[in-house]
Amino acid sequence: MSIYQLGDVVSLGFMAIALGMDAFSVSLGLGMQEVRLKRIAVVGMVIGLFHMLMPFLGIVLGQVISTQIGNMANLIGGLLLVGIGAQMIFSAFNHGTKKLVQPVGAGLFFFALSVSLDSFSVGLSLGLSEVKTVIALLLFGAASMVLTWAGMILGRKVHGLLGAYSEILGGSILCAFGLKILFG
């Protein structure tokens, strides 16, 4: 593996952590409810799966679009990352918009979908930049699963001191990567 490829993997790792921060912050609140460890394991795995599925769909769509728009791909990808990051930062200040659902059945499905929707757009921008799909998906899934577990367990202990700050950090990282693509 060359230094360039290692740099790509490290960048994808940071991006995976940034995407997982949203799941982490929401999981902090969910963890404050009385949730058993077995349920925490299931929720983390489902969210990890959705954080692989949604960017995959975005990457596929992004690759289709990139063959049609050529040189605009990097510009669009960078703008998408900046926009998603900014949305995460602004939503951290709007505490009333998040509603907790029970992480069971359809509630778990909608919870995982809502937490992973931003990863679709990130996948779209990654598809525009021709990233290594399998590595990106595995990193996104693993990071979001581990961060969900950590958030729910920490939420049981801490009672929400880090929620908004973790989402601000995640949004800042996405903005930074978007700006790197735009001006890099």
From TrEMBL:
<feature type="transmembrane region" description="Helical">
    <location>
        <begin position="162"/>
        <end position="183"/>
    </location>
</feature>
<keyword id="KW-0406">Ion transport</keyword>
<feature type="transmembrane region" description="Helical">
    <location>
        <begin position="72"/>
        <end position="93"/>
    </location>
</feature>
<keyword id="KW-1133">Transmembrane helix</keyword>
<feature type="transmembrane region" description="Helical">
    <location>
        <begin position="134"/>
        <end position="155"/>
    </location>
</feature>
<dbReference type="InterPro" id="IPR022929">
    <property type="entry name" value="Put_MntP"/>
</dbReference>
<keyword id="KW-0472">Membrane</keyword>
<dbReference type="InterPro" id="IPR003810">
    <property type="entry name" value="Mntp/YtaF"/>
</dbReference>
<comment type="similarity">
    <text>Belongs to the MntP (TC 9.B.29) family.</text>
</comment>
<comment type="function">
    <text>Probably functions as a manganese efflux pump.</text>
</comment>
<protein>
    <recommendedName>
        <fullName>Putative manganese efflux pump MntP</fullName>
    </recommendedName>
</protein>
<keyword id="KW-1003">Cell membrane</keyword>
<dbReference type="Pfam" id="PF02659">
    <property type="entry name" value="Mntp"/>
</dbReference>
<feature type="transmembrane region" description="Helical">
    <location>
        <begin position="12"/>
        <end position="30"/>
    </location>
</feature>
<keyword id="KW-0813">Transport</keyword>
<feature type="transmembrane region" description="Helical">
    <location>
        <begin position="105"/>
        <end position="128"/>
    </location>
</feature>
<feature type="transmembrane region" description="Helical">
    <location>
        <begin position="42"/>
        <end position="66"/>
    </location>
</feature>
<keyword id="KW-0464">Manganese</keyword>
<keyword id="KW-0812">Transmembrane</keyword>
